[in-house]
Every structure is written in C-alpha cells, then in structure tokens.
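[09:14] KT: can someone run the structure on this one? pasting the chain below
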Amino acid sequence: MKAAIILCALMALSECMVRIPLNKGKTAREKLEEQGLWEEYSNKYPYKPMAKFLAQGNGNQQMTNDADLAYFGVISIGTPPQSFKVIFDTGSSNLWVPSVYCNSAACQNHAKFNAGQSSTFRFTNKPLQIQYGTGSMTGFLGYDTVLVGGIQVPDQMFGLSQTEAPFLAHMPADGILGLAFASIAASGAEPVFNNMVQQGLVQQDYFSFYLSSNSEAGSEVTFGGYNPSHYTGNLIWIPLSSETYWQITVNSITVNGQVVACKEGCQAIVDTGTSLIVGPNDDISSLNNAVGASSSYSQMAPVNCGSISSMPEISFIIHGHTFTLPASTYVLQSNNFGCRTGLANGGSALWILGDVFIRQYYTVFNMQSNYVGLAKAV
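[09:31] RB: done, structure tokens below
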C-alpha cells in the first residue's frame, strides 16, 4: 500500500547526546537528477518510499536528513556489532537489512549482514517477504542483538534480505526499522519497539520524532520519551482509529477557509517513511488547484518559485484542531527541477501524512494509550 523509503554513526547514550555530522556527499535525489532519472522516479515512486527529559531506560537516536527526501540513522546488529543505516519507519513493522546472501543490485552498494561473523545470531526457518508500494524484498528471519539509540535489545527478530527491489539501490539507507504495530508485521516478527517495552528497556510505551528541514542536522527519534525543547505549546493527543498503522481520522482539509479535500472526513496514517503528503487523486488535484499549482499533475505539481510567498496555507482539521502548513513548507524546491508541491496521488482513499507534515509538527507515538501527539515543531 505504501513504500517505506528512505536514514549516522553508532552511538552509546547515557546523560549526553552525540551529534552525527551530515553526509557531505551527493544526496540520492541529486544523483538521480544528474542521471536524468529524477522526473521518472518521483512520478513513479512518490513515497520515499532528544536533553533533560532523557532518563535511564530512554534512548535517543540521531538521524541524518538527506535533502528532505529521507531520514536515516545507524544501528548495529550482532556480536561483534555490524553497523547499518536504516529508515525509522512508522508505516511498517519489520526490521530488515541486506545480507551476504543477497545478490540484487540494491545489495551491492549497501552494508550486508554476515550471520557467520556474529556469535549471538540464531537462524529460523521462517521466510520473509515484504511488499512496498515501490517493490518488495524477500529473505528470511533470524535473531540477534540489536543496538539502537543506546538501547541494547537482545533476541530481536529481524529480516536478512536475499532479493531487493531495484529502487533501493538509489537509497542511502541499507534497510528499514519498522515502528508500526505488530498486527501488520510480516511473518509474525515482533517489532523492535515492542521488544523494548516487553523487556523493560524503556520507561514509557511511546516514542517520538523530530525531523529537521533543509538538510539540517538535529533530526532524532526518541524511544521511551519525548523532548519538549523540540516543540512549542502543548501536545494535542489524537486517538487512533486503527492499531495497524498509526492511523487517525482527519475531519477535513481546507484552503482559505474552504474545504477542498477530505470533505466528509477521511482516514490518514502518520508515516515517517513517506516523503510527501499522499491522498486520493481527486483530492490531490483539488488541493493543487486551490493553492495555484497545476491540477493536472498527480505527483508534485510544478509552481512558480517566485509565487511561494503569496500562496495560501493548507490546513488539516484533525480531532477538532487545526494543523496548518504554509506554502514554504509544502512546496519543495530543487536547483534541478524547480519548485513543486509535496503532494502525491496514492491511488487509495487512505491519506498519508508523511515528512512534509511531520517536519512541521513534533510527533509522539503513544502505544500505551493508542494516541498520536502533535505539537508545533521548533
């Protein structure tokens, strides 16, 4: 249904935090643009695919922002540890990384887990296949020790890929760490955060995300806590409408006070693994038209870069509260393709509030009470 795409050195965290430097190499988007592939890629694959609150049992994981396209951080698996860059994805539930058993092109330019070099690895006889909106991965499941955000999680089930979809070859991340509910985990694998909770490794049954803008440093995910220094005002708690993805009910979407999409209410998932805001084709066309972009584009409609300051805000009415995105936040800018809206047609009635939305609103995922908390990010 969706693609969890597209996340920076291994860290141990106690009282202090380690800042990870940005990757100074070319971004995935820049590489695709140079090859003349960005236009085709972005149209075909719109989903890309925390301080004093920290206490014993809470973990803080720094992430790198890759041109606002993806957020990835480094974890380790095995004994001795083998390091991998992964997307922290609230739109899927499995942890998987490439393995030495994979010969796909996507595995050749990524780190690969070698089970034979880990003294704590245990094989299973369970196959694994995960279908994303932009392709699939196949492999098998194993158990090993995972270190993420300074938290060591023993006996964590994870996937070792044997085949990977071609689009993954363009991504800076090696694998994906899913943070949705166990009910949608492939092959019955227990998600990493669930294991943290069950083993008493975190103090609270929630985790939270801060996503920086414009490739800046500072993006982070916190396990077992949240960071008040990353938001202003109070968290607004929104009940989940489904405990599969982090799914909520949106009342309507307005521009200039007029309802232009989600007119009778709609369902949306809050998804850190999706770059854009995704919705049904008719609604995306209506939104593009309302903000002055071409309604004929189903993915990232072009706009005049000089018009951004005069374009209207988009407001999402959720649980009776208004969450507003100025044009400067929902229009994406590039030296190669100019300016386009961060809106895409998902071919489904289900909306996805991806990174374009989450960059503006600090997000807490409360698994204990089944709520999503939102507050204006700073």
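[09:33] KT: thanks! The chain has two domains: 28-227, 229-377.
[09:34] RB: yep, looked fine to me
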